[in-house]
Prior knowledge:
The complex is a heterodimer of chains A (196) and B (416). Chain A is α+β, with helices and mostly antiparallel strands and 196 residues long. Chain A contains nine helices and nine strands. Chain A has helices at residues 3-12, 15-21, 52-55, 65-78, 81-84, 105-108, 111-116, 122-132, 158-161; strands spanning 32-40, 43-51, 85-86, 93-104, 135-145, 153-156, 167-174, 177-184, 189-191. In chain A, strands 4-5-2-1-7-8 form a six-stranded mixed beta sheet. Chain A has a three-stranded antiparallel beta sheet with strand order 3-6-9. In chain A, α1 (3-12) packs antiparallel against α2 (15-21). The termini of chain A are far apart. Chain B is an alpha+beta fold. Chain B has two domains: 2-45 and 281-412, no CATH class; 54-267, no CATH class. Chain B is built from 14 helices and 16 strands. Chain B has helices spanning 2-12, 14-46, 62-69, 82-89, 118-121, 148-154, 200-206, 223-228, 249-257, 269-280, 282-312, 314-322, 327-368, 379-409, and strands at residues 54-58, 80-81, 94-106, 109-114, 123-124, 128-129, 132-135, 143-146, 161-162, 179-185, 195-199, 210-211, 214-215, 235-236, 238-243, 264-267. In chain B, strands 1, 3, 4, 7, 8, 9, 10, 11, 15 and 16 form a ten-stranded mixed beta sheet that branches. In chain B, a hairpin with a 2-residue loop joins β3 and β4. The longest helix of chain B is centred in the C-terminal third of the chain and has 42 residues, at 327-368. Chain B is elongated and about 105 Å long.
Amino acid sequence: MKTLPLVAIVVVTATSAFAEEARQVDAHEHGVGQLDIAFDGNQIAIELHAPGSDIVGFEYAAESSDDRAAVDAAVAKLAVPLDLFVLPAAAECSVVQASAELESEEEHADEDHAENDEEHTEADHAKHEEESGHTEFHAEYLLTCAQPDAASEITFTYFETFPNAVELEVQVVSDAGANAFEVERNNPKLDLRGMF
Amino acid sequence: MILRLAFGSLMARALTVGMTILAIALSVALFLGVEKVRTGAKASFADTISGTDLIVGARSGSVQLLLYSVFRIGNATNNLTWESYQDIAERPQVDWIVPISLGDSHRQFRVMGTTAEFFDRYKYRSGQSLELSDGAIMSDLFDTVIGADVAATLGYEINDPIVVAHGLASFTEHEDQPFRVSGILEKTGTPVDRTVIVSLKAIEAIHVDWKSGAKTSGMSTAADVIREMELQPQAVTAALVGVKGRLQVFGLQRSINEYKQEPLLAVLPGVALQELWQIVGIAETALIAVSGMVVITALIGMMATIFSSLNERRREMAIFRAMGARPRVILGLLVLEASLMAAIGAILGLMFLYIGLIIAQPLVDSAFGLWLPIDPPTLREVWVLLSVIAASAIVSLVPALRAYRLSLADGMMVKI
């Protein structure tokens, strides 16, 4: 209980002070991203977290115009989920919502902070990235499918689009429960027949 | 024609052929039975917990969290503070949350403190709820509901007193506050069978006179006084969480895993079970290998009997030859006989399996909580049967080729 007010102050003031209070850093493995897929009725929610090195090949703050262009291009690609994770045409899926962004380790560790504060500037990013040294791309998608049962196989063209990505750890929840899969570059297919 | 001949030939040697068929049938039944038990065990294992979206505990490993919170194996590295528990409970995505408090024991069984909601929320075998075989769930502070194995092993009945021991392997008991058995649960085949369930407040209550891990001597608070006390737990061991919508599971999981105030871990039970099964699952490969070897042994046995029958059938073969049968026909006859034996053996084995399943299903369910479904043969099983027949045809080629050569060399006058 004692630490709670301290944490509140730290969040408001500066991130460097926080590092002295409670130190924690997420595991960060280059080449390995996380993909979460939830099936609920006609809706499919997909969430992707991938290290910056997988997507753009670097994790320092984008300073040169080339770097910034690379980040912008990556975000644009990430915003088109059906080009990265190809669902069977029979499922008749369409994208309702898609968002993609680059976030740093420090930032996404504090969800509330990140969500409330819409106006994150590039300078903010740069500051965070200098401290943690790692960046992560985060994308969220919401799809609706006319025939969700037909979405039983996903082809990961993600690996073609982003040549540095090696593996995705996939978690899936559906009516059949939860399950975990690993999809690798040399076999970029996910068989979900057991999940319906 | 040749089929009738093969059949007649088998009938003529009914005893040895019958034995061979029996060996094949038993080996096939064993192989398919192992397959059934394996898939049944896997399904039962995966069905240990269902209906729960997330398990939350101290940050450790997902398998470890699953082991101590669901299977009651091992111990928590840390507890989940009540503040964090409240914080998670108030999240908008959370539909329900059930606390679990472990750490005390009764004889060899673990004691689990929880709320009455546990009985509604804990589901096993795809959505089946816990049922009481006798009594009712806790109504008083010192009531307890015990699992089926606890009742059977210790011979408890409703209203029997129970004294809970402090810690897991300890001789110091909470004698001041004896519990009363208020309900006994039906057998579920899950770790709940081996659990003594009390209310979360009762866990606090039995520790009222305990300061810093040891009992304060000379102090004993009367049960009625304790009932009046406000028993607010400081911490719980883990929590089962249900979310309002499935699409929110991952968001909640991520925010708990990145919770700053306390290092917490949220896992999807299905994912953790999958990880655990990958560790346990090596044994299933070994089982399949062993039962596969039994089938091979039976086939080799069949080969041996065909070999030994060759000598006594030399005259028979010679007569076939004299009547105009080509050596190829002799070869075909033997292979056909072997395939017939294997086919009869396979069908018989399948029958043995279903008879065995019908007899064993209720027994295995009540003894081990393992549900073996009686389904029509799967495509995989049909393939197994077909490959046993094919394998026997291939194996029989060895003696058949010998017979082929002998029938070329032997004349009518075989010296036996």
